[in-house]
């Protein structure tokens, strides 16, 4: 019986496959996915980080949609988050997972960016992969910033005010940008409404479009091989097919990421403070989120060294020039023939990484 049943099932499955294939072209999709090979060498571990970032984004989508069921932007924002946290079954867990996953996603995106940088995966023909990636990182940070205000507790309110000091210090246009973003002179329920629209409509649309472009580029060009491996003879290079081999490893990484997230979200539930009182003085030690700390610290330190607006202008200028040099790296570190430039680019990467870490620690030490 077993054999004949399985034959019938196989026939039914293959008929179903053919039915869908005829209409959607499954064969072509599978062929497109398995076309790519992933290089195997001692730095292959870093190829997982784009996928980990992607996974955390998917967690954000699912948990964010669940939060939308009860969240009410505007004047009732705090009450609705209090309800999610204390009254709705498992509401605290969904909220905790969303907040932890947001932080892990920013972290994973930074790890991914620096590993791409050190593997020199921004070189021809992957320049647009680098630029679309930078846009994704920028959007991820704005996602985090806009989401942080939504519960409107004390910390959210004051951290948003402090965070807005960064754009406010841009000479000329800073004040206009901040008034536009806030919807007035202060952070109010109008600001929540604006941040909410940004967080759940505008950013997701832009992010998903840019992500599709980013992933299409990876599929088109395949993964870059770091320069050290590139110089090896063809016979010593190893690859595995992306589908199904590397994809299976990706899934294992996603499972590990899910474990880390589950441990953090359940053992360290995300807290809700007291409701924000705009008239109250800012509590001690208010600071922006960790991924804005380095910019904040630069503004603070330069403000101290050069009192008045000069300090802020110098700080903003420094970050802008550094950021531009970072974004334009594919245009001046093109290949290993210019060995000096290639080495300088790597040193630039180390300086940026160490600079960000030191400034962030320094920022925390001073709050
Ligand atoms: C924030 C969301 C992001 C997501 C979801 C994402 C996703 C991915 C995925 C799944 C891959 C293929 C696997 C891999 O090589 O790791 C990839 C590759 C790549 N990403 Fe991203 N990425 C993001 C941000 C960034 C950033 C910030 C940069 C750099 C500025 C970047 C630059 C690249 C480049 C150049 C590649 C090709 C790497 C290679 O050829 O080896 N991505 N990305």
Structural commentary:
- The longest helix has 33 residues, at 189-221.
- This protein has helices spanning 2-24, 26-34, 48-68, 77-86, 91-118, 127-149, 154-163, 165-168, 174-182, 189-221, 227-230, 242-267, 293-305, 309-327, 329-332, 339-365, and strands at residues 37-40, 238-241.
- The protein contains 16 helices and two strands.
- It has 367 residues and is mostly helical.
- A two-stranded antiparallel ribbon has the order 1-2.
- Helix 3 (48-68) crosses helix 12, helix 13 (293-305) crosses helix 14 (309-327) and helix 13 packs across helix 16.
- The chain has a domain at 35-284: Cytochrome Bc1 Complex, Chain C.
- Helix content is 72%, strand content 2%.
- The site of protoporphyrin IX containing FE has 27 residues, from helix 3, helix 5, helix 6 and helix 10.
- Protoporphyrin IX containing FE binds next to helix 3, helix 5, helix 6 and helix 10.
Under CATH at level 1, the class of the domain at 35-284 stands as: Mainly Alpha
Strand order across the largest sheet: 1-2
Q: pLDDT average, as an integer?
A: 94
* Cα Rg: 24 Å
């Amino acid at each position: 019986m077993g054999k004949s049943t399985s034959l019938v099932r196989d026939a039914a499955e293959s008929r179903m496959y053919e039915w869908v294939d005829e209409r959607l072209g499954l064969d072509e999709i599978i062929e497109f996915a398995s076309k790519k090979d992933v290089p195997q060498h001692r730095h292959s571990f870093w190829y997982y980080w784009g996928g980990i970032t992607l996974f955390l984004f998917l967690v954000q989508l699912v948990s964010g949609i669940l939060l939308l069921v009860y969240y009410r932007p505007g004047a009732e924002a705090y009450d609705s988050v209090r309800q999610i946290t204390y009254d709705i079954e498992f509401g605290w867990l969904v909220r905790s997972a969303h907040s932890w996953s947001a932080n892990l996603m920013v972290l994973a995106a930074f790890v991914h960016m620096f590993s791409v940088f050190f593997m020199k995966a921004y070189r021809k023909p992957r320049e647009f992969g680098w630029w679309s990636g930078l846009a994704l990182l920028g959007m991820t940070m704005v996602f985090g910033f806009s989401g942080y205000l939504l519960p409107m507790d004390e910390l959210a309110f004051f951290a948003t005010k402090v965070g807005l000091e960064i754009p406010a210090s841009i000479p000329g246009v800073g004040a206009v940008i901040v008034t536009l973003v806030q919807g007035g002179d202060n952070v109010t329920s109008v600001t929540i409404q604006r941040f909410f629209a940004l967080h759940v409509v505008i950013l997701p649309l832009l992010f998903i479009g840019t992500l599709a472009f980013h992933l299409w580029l990876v599929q088109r060009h395949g993964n870059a091989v770091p320069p050290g491996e590139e110089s090896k003879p063809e016979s010593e290079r190893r690859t595995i097919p992306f589908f199904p081999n590397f994809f299976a490893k990706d899934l294992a990484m996603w499972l590990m990421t899910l474990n880390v997230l589950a441990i953090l979200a359940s053992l360290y539930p995300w807290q809700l403070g007291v409701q924000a009182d705009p008239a109250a003085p800012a509590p001690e030690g208010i600071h922006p989120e960790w991924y804005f700390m380095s910019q904040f610290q630069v503004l603070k330190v330069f403000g101290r060294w050069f009192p008045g607006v000069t300090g802020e202008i110098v700080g903003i200028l420094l970050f802008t020039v550094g950021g531009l040099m970072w974004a334009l790296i594919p245009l001046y570190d093109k290949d290993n023939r210019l060995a000096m430039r290639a080495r300088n680019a790597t040193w630039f990467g180390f300086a940026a990484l160490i600079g960000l870490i030191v400034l962030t620690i320094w920022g925390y030490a001073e709050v």
